[in-house]
Design goal:
The chain is α/β, with parallel strands linked by helices and about 90 residues long. The protein is about 35% helix and about 10% strand. It is built from three helices and three strands; from the N terminus they run βαβαβα. Keywords: Monooxygenase, Oxidoreductase.
Length: about 90
């Protein structure tokens, strides 16, 4: 049995370059999978602070990595499926 290591990066209150650097550091450290989350605004701190939308972030992460698996947590069964379909239609199938 092998152990896989996962990490959640919370895409809030940071520049994208900082989030990308954390993602690359996780990949370089041997993390197997990195997740972001399903929120449209920061969950703590300034409610008007920086925050990146999950599907856009996954596209950026796919461009920035070569080995680590990427995904989003709790995809939300309450989404309009036609909208959800448009969001994910273009993502990297790694």
């Amino acid at each position: 049995m092998s152990i896989r290591i996962g990490l959640q990066l919370q895409p809030q209150h940071a520049e994208y370059s900082q989030i990308r650097d954390a993602l690359r550091a996780a990949e370089d450290a041997g993390v197997d999978v990195v997740f972001n989350w399903d929120h449209f605004f920061p969950l703590y701190g300034d409610p008007d602070g920086k925050h990146f939308e999950r599907w856009t972030m996954l596209g950026a992460w796919a461009e920035s990595t070569s080995r680590v698996a990427i995904g989003e947590e709790d995809g939300g069964p309450d989404y309009d499926l036609s909208l959800l379909k448009e969001w994910i239609a273009w993502r990297d199938p790694r």
